[in-house]
Amino acid sequence: DGYVAGFNRYLADTPKDKLPAECGDKAWLRPITVDDMLRLNEERMIQASGGAWLRQTNAASPPTADAALKPAASLGLPNMAEMIGLGSNGWAFGREVTTNKSGLVLGNPHFPWEGTNRFYQTHLTIPGKLDVMGVTIAGGPGMSIGFNKDVAWTHTVSTDRHFTLFELALDPADPTAYLVDGKRHAMDRKSVTVETPTGPQTRTFYTTSYGPVVVMPQAGLTWNTKTAYALRDANRGNSNSSDTWLRISRAKSVGEIKQVIEQTLGIPWVNTIAADRHGDALYADITATPNVSAQKLKDCAPSAPAAALAASARIYVLDGARSACNWDAPGLMPGATMPAMIRTDYVANSNDSYWLAN
Prior knowledge:
This protein has 358 residues and is of the alpha+beta class. It has helices at 2-13, 34-45, 54-58, 241-249, 254-264, 294-299, 304-307, 309-313; strands at 87-93, 104-110, 119-126, 130-137, 145-147, 151-157, 163-171, 174-180, 183-186, 188-196, 199-207, 213-214, 227-233, 270-276, 281-284, 317-319, 340-343, 346-349.
């Protein structure tokens, strides 16, 4: 609410000729609402999960004919253009290797110089309550990477998958209905119309209890009269991120940062690398991640071609016809069970596996 109020106050108090020339006279420049911020946060949260399947969701439509699964030897996660090349390097050094026996962080984020994922330098202060400096992504009210007088932190991209697919067994009489434990469920259907410079565009989306129906023909993930695929997203509705980064901004030690991210699971798809004034260094791959064990992946394997996507593209597909194959309660992996370490020498990550952190 405070960010929205401040944005709108600035817009109301600043004459148009004093605004940046790139936006001052644009029709889209307008006051924002809390709903706008919630939608923006959702887009940020799902960039490495549902957002990366945007085109595959948009292309999903009921079948006109059957299609067979195709080989997927060179496939990977489908990415929106803006996500391609995102990644970072991060190092945190502890008191064993620093001259002043305090912590030191080197962050080397690889985010674009333009677009909605661009970083902006910022310094947030509330006398007696908050004093933190660093960078934030455009439109973000908090600090993405930064430091206060006690801690500094940075992020790199996690190797975790933050979604799974479910292979649906369809009702033979209706390809927009699917079976779970033998019970029929109708897909939800929603048409969305968006105004564009060339006129309104309408798309119809189909959703299941797992999430939206998606297609990826090059992987053979098609919607035919027998089978469809739905995406369940670990970051869908993840509203904890703002509170998580605010609490990190106020932290006094890396132990406190670790506790915050374990409790909130508000970090969507990045590792956390941090150090504190006491000389401790933290690495944590604690993110919103599906609670699916290796045994469940084995027990709930889908058709052989879909199962093969795990090895060829790290796209994990579960049998959607059995409720027992859904994610284990409470849905996300508990933060305390995820990879993390606090050391006094160093930790490092370059968007690779947690086992390489030291």
